[in-house]
Structure formats: C-alpha cells, structure tokens
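Reviewers asked in the last cycle whether our approach scales beyond single polypeptides. To address this, we selected a multi-component target totalling 215 residues and predicted its structure end to end. The input consisted of the following lines:
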Amino acid sequence: MSRLRVSSFTISLDGYGAGPDQDRDNPLGVGGGALHEWALATRTFRRMFGSDGGTTGIDDDFAARGFDDIGAWILGRNMFGPIRGPWPDDEWKGWWGDTPPYHTPVFVLTNHPRAPIAMDGGTTFHFVADGIDAALRRAADAANGRDIRLGGGVATIRQYLRAGLIDEMHLAIAPILLGSGEHLFAGIDAPKLGYERTEHVPTPNATHVVFAKRK
Ligand SMILES: NC(=O)c1ccc[n+]([C@@H]2O[C@H](COP(=O)([O-])OP(=O)(O)OC[C@H]3O[C@@H](n4cnc5c(N)ncnc54)[C@H](OP(=O)(O)O)[C@@H]3O)[C@@H](O)[C@H]2O)c1
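The resulting structure, written as structure tokens, was:
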C-alpha cells in the first residue's frame, strides 16, 4: 500500500517552512531561500537541476531517500506558484521549467481548478479542487503501490498532519531564524496525533529529524 511521505521539508530554527510575501523573485518567501542551502548543495539536488558535483554524505543520503519509490506527488497551489485567486491564463506552469523534477503525476490542491498540464519528462500537473482526501485518493491510484510524496507547502502539510494521514515526515531544521512566515507546527499537537521521532542526525548544514506514526 502507498505511504504518504514528506521528505527534505525544511524549517527554520523558529519553525517556519517559508518566509513571508512570496512572489516570483522569492519562491520561498522573503528570506526563505536560505532554508534550502543544505539541500541545494547536495549531489542529488544538483543532478536534479542538471549540474555536476555536490556534497555526498548524510545530507545527500536524506535528499536521495526522498525520491526512492515515489509514484505521485501532492503539492499546494502556492508551492506550484505565486499566483493567487483565479488563474488569469494558462501561462504559469510551475517554477521548474519545461522538465520539472517530479517525473510522475503531481496533484495540486487548489480552489481554482484548471486543465491538467503535461510537461516533459513524465510530469503531469493535475489540479484538485475537492480537498485533501480526494487528492490523496487520486495520487494513490496514480502511484499504483508506490509511495506518495507530499511536497508542501506549509498549509498543505498542516492539513494532512492534522488529519493524521502522513505516514513519515523527514524534516531538515536549517540553522537560521526567519522571524515570520508560514509556521509548520503552530497549534498542532503532533504527539497527540500519534507522531514520534524515529531518527535524529545533525550535520553542519541541517539537523535531520524523521517522525512517523506510532504503530
Ligand atoms: N521549506 C520547504 O522545504 C518547502 C517545501 C515546499 C514549499 N515550500 C514553500 O512553502 C510556501 C507555500 O506554502 P503555503 O503554506 O503558502 O501554501 P501551499 O500549502 O503550497 O498552498 C496553499 C494553497 O493551496 C490551495 N489549497 C490548499 N489546500 C487546499 C484544499 N484542501 N482545498 C483547496 N485548495 C487548497 C489554496 O490555494 P487557492 O485557494 O489559491 O487555490 C491554498 O491557499 C512557498 O513559499 C513554498 O516555496 C517550502
């Protein structure tokens, strides 16, 4: 059966998964770009974006694990892009160019549905307007027994967390303070929802923590 996994989702020391005021120049919100420094340095992420080199070791091992056995993704509309409200046209196709790094069906939660977009490299963006359970069902069908990666952003992970639907969550804690933005855990009692820590590995660039649902 497919598991719903969060991987390499990065929060600041003060708990923010994105800075404020996202726009085209600041996909992770103002100041939020610093969250991903650990990930962008890894061999896995550099290859994903067509570059050589990159770090190997613990950070890269966690980054690579996140792509193992993934058959579909779920994203929130703000992770897909900075446009809010009704789509003005069909021009926006994500931040990632013609060949996004998903290579599977991707289900984008939104209140503003639009037709699916087939991209190069096997990614098709499907827009889901009937909620998190519907997105999960469609992703599970598409994944065909492989796992589903819940990419983010914050509001989307919070909904699946509150519903107790996330099986495993790898968070990287970046050694930065953001001060404001989108807070991952505010008002959520994760232990009460049944989550416990199963791994905890610090590196100079991030502290990796994995949470899973108690059996
Ligand atoms: N730190 C990390 O590792 C990481 C990873 C991924 C993303 N991010 C960042 O996180 C930020 C985005 O997070 P976010 O919390 O602002 O937003 P988000 O979770 O990406 O998207 C929220 C939006 O998705 C739509 N949506 C979500 N749930 C829905 C539902 N149940 N039904 C219908 N529509 C639904 C709504 O958009 P509409 O009503 O407009 O349709 C909602 O405003 C970005 O800055 C992104 O770069 C960070």
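Residues 9-10, 17-18, 22, 27-29, 32, 35, 76-79, 84, 109-112, 129, 131-132, 151-156, 159, 182 surround NAP (CB under 6 Å). We regard this as preliminary and will revisit it once experimental data from Aim 1 are available.
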